[in-house]
Specification:
- By secondary structure, the chain is α+β, with helices and mostly antiparallel strands.
- It folds into two domains: 72 residues, Glutaredoxin, CATH 3.40.30; 77 residues, no CATH class.
- The protein has six helices and four strands, in the order βαβαββαααα.
- A four-stranded mixed β-sheet has the order 2-1-3-4, with helices on one face.
- Helix 4 runs antiparallel to helix 6.
Length: 176
């Protein structure tokens, strides 16, 4: 029986849940309020992160790895699934490195946002974390914290948009 261990608010778990639903795959769901709040997590993932997917002898963690496995292992789409069907891979074969780089950038942004959110929920402020203290001493330190976060997100978004636009103008993404 397939099993998925995940937290309620995880955008990573949502990726896996969408693919499981689109593929019409049955699974047992183990939901947790927070990713690191149950004692047996270390037994199923040494990285102590969710989601974790178990399919008989296959034991995976990390949403990208889980989604790739599901797309390759269960290539068919059940009758009545939404159109168009899911892609067969997360990246286009002819542009794997570029697509993977964009996905990694988006995942890094999501990780940062999730980490900041987790810290805030735990009562930590940037001044409580040595790494963030160093970041505040960087040239952007003169900018207010919300403006700095917004600037960082905008910069990452602009860079990703530029990569997509450049690839589209080279015919890599399809019609403009």
């Amino acid at each position: 029986m397939r099993k998925l261990y995940h937290s309620y608010l995880s955008p990573y778990a949502r990726r896996v849940l969408i693919v499981l639903a689109e593929k019409g795959l049955e699974y047992k769901s183990y939901k947790h309020k927070f990713a690191r709040e149950f004692e047996s997590l270390s037994a199923i993932n040494p990285c102590l992160l969710l989601p974790v997917y178990i399919d008989d002898a296959v034991h995976l963690w990390g949403s990208n790895l889980i989604v790739e496995y599901l797309l390759k292992t269960y290539p068919t789409t059940p009758t009545g699934s939404p159109e168009p069907p899911l892609a067969s891979t997360m990246t286009r074969p002819d542009h794997h490195r570029e697509d993977a780089r964009i996905l990694a950038t988006l995942e890094t942004m999501t990780d940062s946002i999730m980490n900041l959110r987790q810290m805030k929920m735990s009562g930590l402020e940037p001044n409580d974390v040595v790494y963030l203290q160093r970041q505040r001493k960087a040239p952007l330190a003169k900018v207010s914290r919300p403006a700095c976060s917004q600037l960082w997100i905008s910069t990452c978004y602009a860079r990703s948009a530029m990569l997509i636009t450049t690839r589209a103008s080279n015919g890599a993404v399809g019609p403009r």
